[in-house]
Amino acid sequence: HVLNNGPRSRHESRTEQWPRSTPEHAWKAPRPPGMLFPFPSFPMHSGPPSQFLIDMRKWMCLMLLLQSAVCILRFALADIWAGFIMMIIVGFGWYAWYQTMSMTFICYWGLIGLIHGVFDLVHLIDFEVKSRMPMFSKRAPFSYNVHAAARLLEPIVMLLGSLFAFYLYRYDQPDSVYERIASAETRSSESRPLSGSRSGGNYGLGGQGFSTFQGQGHKLGGQPSH
């Protein structure tokens, strides 16, 4: 046999120069960017509300009335910008209440109210730190005390509304404590008539006895005996 030690082909020389496709040199797909804040998605409103939301509807109405009163006070004190922003937030709440407790708009109402309430709280702290006057004073005119009350009440009602919205979101889940208690009460109320009918006699038979088989038996394929 004659050994061929001559020049190799161009394809063979390129194959030896490049490293083989090992796991170290394999191409890796870039990972998708993760969320900066992993907040859960807002629930979409579909179907009738739960019994828990129906029970909480009157309390949400009371919370919205308090926020609306503070919003009107803001406009009355010529604080147009703060009153306008608060009016939009309260509008989300009233729309959620009008749509039979829409959980989607309840979450919008709570989240925007939380942001606005935090900014109002920071603004209140900044104003009181830089002010030489106390928050309320008997010597000050009436308008001064009213403005101070409005600055104090706005972050309070906004943060309380956000806390109430979170309470509705938390306990409206299918596996919440409220739903488990309600389902347990429903099952116990459904089992009470059945247990009472068993103790009083057979259900639907007026207390009469029930016999499973009656009459004379016959063999399969045989003639009936007279």
TrEMBL record:
Region (Disordered): 1-31, 189-226
UniProt keyword annotations, A-Z: Membrane, Transmembrane, Transmembrane helix
Bias (Gly residues) ranges: 198-209
Biased composition (Basic and acidic residues): 9-27
Keyword rRNA processing found: no
Transmembrane regions: 64-97, 103-127, 148-169
Keyword Membrane: yes
Protein name: Uncharacterized protein
Organism of provenance: Alexandrium andersonii
